[in-house]
Design goal:
There is one protein chain. With 261 residues, the chain is mostly helical. It is built from 11 helices and no strands. Helix 1 runs antiparallel to helix 7, helix 2 runs parallel beside helix 4 and helix 3 runs antiparallel to helix 4.
Length: 261
């Protein structure tokens, strides 16, 4: 059972996720950062980071472009970590509740944007009337409305209590739980594939093959592969910088030769 202070901190953290996404941009929108903070609140950092890392991979390549609404994976990390720690049933149990709430957050996000549309129009009206204090005050409704889209569902989910959550999870058929386990392993790969879709993979496919070889066949941990990638990137940058410098020098020489003539 969560203590009162834990419930308050978790609700505040959930409130700050959409506020950070549309305003502060200090990193709370990323599941791994949110889960890291949840690890401190719940006192189980390994579980929190495991869930946060998994959801971070799921969210790669998913972006809210042009005002579109997407699932809030950071909110899923908050709920999934809370359920996994309080029920002791692991990541799959947390995702079984966390992901649907994240999907539901899409609808809340749309509603909040509609409400904020009225808020902006009213603030514009105050600005035209030169009532700037009222304009500033009403604009505070924007982040409050967005924050509530995450804080309310998270508060309801965690206030149900581990007993209710456990009863729901026990009621789920085995095939559904097995499906969630498979999905939890497949979705990170889907997230990476979406991210690669926006990158020049065909041009640098040999780097991708090399990283896969290091991980799959040599068992190199992710930190080791990251170091190799950094070295390769620095070498690529140095080579192309040298080529650019030589080309610039050649152009200057040609200009100098023309001036001498």
């Amino acid at each position: 059972m969560l203590a009162l202070w834990q419930t308050i901190l978790i609700t505040i953290l959930a409130f700050l996720v959409p506020v950070d996404k549309y305003g502060l941009t200090i990193g709370l929108r990323w599941p791994i950062i949110t889960a890291f903070l949840m690890g401190f609140i719940l006192g189980d950092m390994p579980t929190a980071l495991y869930i946060g890392g998994t959801l971070q991979l799921m969210s790669l390549g998913v972006a809210s472009i042009g005002g579109s609404s997407v699932p809030e994976y950071a909110v899923a990390a908050i709920i999934a970590t809370t359920i996994a720690v309080t029920t002791g049933k692991g990541m799959e149990a947390g995702l079984a509740i966390g992901l649907p709430v994240a999907m539901l957050g899409v609808q809340f996000d749309v509603c909040a944007k509609i409400i904020n549309g009225f808020t902006v129009r009213q603030s514009q009206k105050y600005a035209n009337e030169k009532k700037f204090k009222k304009m500033i005050r009403i604009l505070y409704l924007g982040p409050v409305t967005m924050g509530l889209t995450a804080a309310i569902p998270v508060f309801i989910a965690i206030q149900l209590g581990p007993e209710v959550i456990t009863a729901i999870l026990d009621f789920m058929p085995a095939w559904f739980s097995a499906g969630l386990t498979i999905a939890g392993k497949v979705l990170p790969a889907v997230g990476i594939a979406l991210l690669l879709n926006y990158m020049p993979v065909r041009k640098y496919v040999y780097y991708l093959i090399g990283g896969f070889f290091l991980a799959a066949y040599l068992g190199v941990p992710i930190l080791g592969i990251t170091i190799v990638g950094i070295v390769a990137a620095l070498k690529y940058y140095a080579d192309h910088s040298a080529v650019g410098t030589m080309a610039a020098a050649a152009v200057n020489d040609n200009i100098g030769g023309l001036e001498d003539e």
